[in-house]
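sanity check this fold:
=====
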Amino acid sequence: MCAVLVKASLTAGAVASLALGTALAANAGGYTPPVVDTDVTAPVVESAPVGDWAGAYAGLTLGYAFGGDDRVGFTEVDTGTYLGDAGKLELGGANAGLHVGYRWQRDRWVFGPELGFEAGNIKDTITFDNQLGGSTDVSSKIRNVLALRLKTGYALRPDLLLYGIAGIARADVEYKVAGTDGSGGSMSESRDFKSNGYIVGLGVERKLSDRMSVTGEYEYANFGKTTRTFQVDGGVSTQATPDYHNVKLGLNFKF
């Protein structure tokens, strides 16, 4: 009986030794780390919307011009003698306009041409005493302006566009001298003209809906120098230099 127990114990020990030997042999190459699944999907980042500003549009504006600086000084035609500075025409007044345009868009950048026509009451008159014992009036009025503008902007938000303005323009100008002398006589001469110039400015546009937006703009318009000659006092001339600043509110309709 004792021999049987000893034999069974030896047999159990041999089995345990064999199992331990097998485990050690299986791990003889070192520690094997567990397999970790690294296939992680990166989150999708969506770009911020920029809004749709491209396409054709038409609109209208209401504005007020101010700060014109048209210096008036007369020179004798025959002798070239400068007769002096008569004053400064500060052109200003209400105006209204219509325009049509087209815009392209590249990401947030928006650009395109705009053709506009404006008319109103941009004018001024100066009065001074003349050498004949009377007074003289010099007046200038911009009847209308036809302009081709290039507007280039950046969409700050899908509904908000900030842009710059640069363009060429042609103004129809009414220019007049009228006066009296000490004996009760009077005279009046008009020397109307058309002059080319330029326009620069800044603007902002805010969408009210997909097809309607409001605008606010500041512009400076300058129409160069144009010589005007009058028959008064044997012939005198002056250089008309119309310019003005203009602030405008507008409404655009996208097609």
